Structure formats: structure tokens, C-alpha cells
Design the sequence.
């Protein structure tokens, strides 16, 4: 089985843990990663943008002037798009942007991401990640010690001190194992797992 070193917060090696090959040593299927990201980003779209057409704007349907004899072009009503306050021609309307992906394909995409990160040495496992007090400086020092930039941090239990310490640090995102997704895995350069969070993710993705 694949193995990875586990560290404490001071970057001292505290052990070597085994990883499930069915999760961290699978075939990297790039097309599934692409599909999963496309589904996720598309489903974020609200689709609520809308403008009023000539049939929806306020105003009379009466002809502004008679059909013939004025020397001007004939007009139907003041709600037409070329009149001030008229309806919009060919404007955006409400639309549902919804895509779906079956569970088996989504699991395979997650496994592909984790395998890629593991093979590229962008994967760090800690025995625990806790802070005694709220300190952005302490959190930044932790990132510097591990040479981490633009990092996704996955922890099992959301510690308030950790959450508030990391909140103002740029390019860092804190997630629970249940919120892990393909987009964030590919967006960030490094992924940090606590051991308990990694085991939860591993258990959820095991075939």
C-alpha cells in the first residue's frame, strides 16, 4: 500500500501511515475531473437575471399617433424597445442552470484528484491542527514552516481558534471532510489533512 509521513504542527515526523490504494493510487481520469468541475461551477449559477419585454413594461398599448398622414414611420405603442421606458428586445430571461453527475463518476473524479495530489507531493498529513488562542500570526508561521501557499486545509473538527486564526490569511480555505470537492482540490496548490479528516474522506470514497 502507498504510505505517507505524518507530522505534528512543528514539522516533526511522528509516524508513517498507510493509504488506501483504491483512493490514493488510482488511474487519473482527467475528463472526469473536468466534468465534475463543470457541474459544480454551472450549478452555482442562480439564473435569476431577467428583464422586462414589451409585454411586461408599464404603459399604454394605444398608438402614439395615427397610422397615416404624418410623414413619419408607423408606430404601434410606446412600449416598443426603441421608446424610452420601453421593453428590452432579446434581453436575458430566467433560466435554470442545472447539471448532474452520477455518484460513481463523482467518486472517481475525487479519487483522481487525490491521486494526483499524492503523486505530485502536494499532500500533507498532520496528527492534529489546533491553536491555544486566536492568532493569525501563529497560523501564518505554521504555513511558513511547512512552505505552504494557496492551501486547502481539511480538518475533522472545526476548532474556533483555528477558524478565526485562518480567516484573514489570503489564499487559504478551511473545510470539513464532508465539504471536500473536486473544484477546491484542483484550485489550491497544497492540501493539508488531519489524520482523522483523511480517514473520513478515505472511508467515504472506498469502493
Sequence:
Amino acid at each position: 500500500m502507498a504510505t505517507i509521513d505524518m507530522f505534528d504542527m512543528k514539522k516533526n515526523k511522528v509516524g508513517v501511515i498507510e493509504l488506501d490504494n483504491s483512493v490514493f493510487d488510482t488511474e487519473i481520469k482527467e475528463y472526469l475531473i473536468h466534468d465534475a468541475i463543470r457541474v459544480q461551477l454551472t450549478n452555482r449559477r442562480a439564473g435569476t437575471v431577467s428583464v422586462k419585454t414589451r409585454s411586461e413594461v408599464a404603459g399604454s398599448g394605444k398608438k402614439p399617433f395615427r397610422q397615416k398622414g404624418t410623414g413619419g414611420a408607423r408606430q404601434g405603442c410606446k412600449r416598443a424597445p426603441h421608446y424610452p421606458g420601453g421593453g428590452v428586445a432579446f434581453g436575458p430571461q430566467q433560466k435554470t442552470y442545472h447539471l448532474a453527475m452520477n455518484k460513481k463518476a463523482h467518486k472517481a473524479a475525487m479519487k483522481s484528484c487525490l491521486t494526483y495530489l499524492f503523486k505530485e507531493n502536494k499532500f500533507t498529513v498532520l496528527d492534529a491542527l489546533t491553536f491555544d488562542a486566536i492568532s493569525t500570526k501563529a497560523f501564518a508561521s505554521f504555513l511558513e514552516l511547512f512552505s505552504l501557499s494557496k492551501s486547502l486545509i481539511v480538518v475533522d473538527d472545526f476548532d474556533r481558534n483555528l477558524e478565526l486564526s485562518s480567516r484573514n490569511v489570503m489564499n487559504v480555505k478551511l473545510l470539513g471532510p464532508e465539504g471536500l470537492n473536486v473544484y477546491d482540490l484542483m484550485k489550491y496548490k497544497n492540501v493539508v489533512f488531519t489524520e482523522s479528516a483523511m480517514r473520513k474522506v478515505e472511508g467515504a470514497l472506498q469502493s
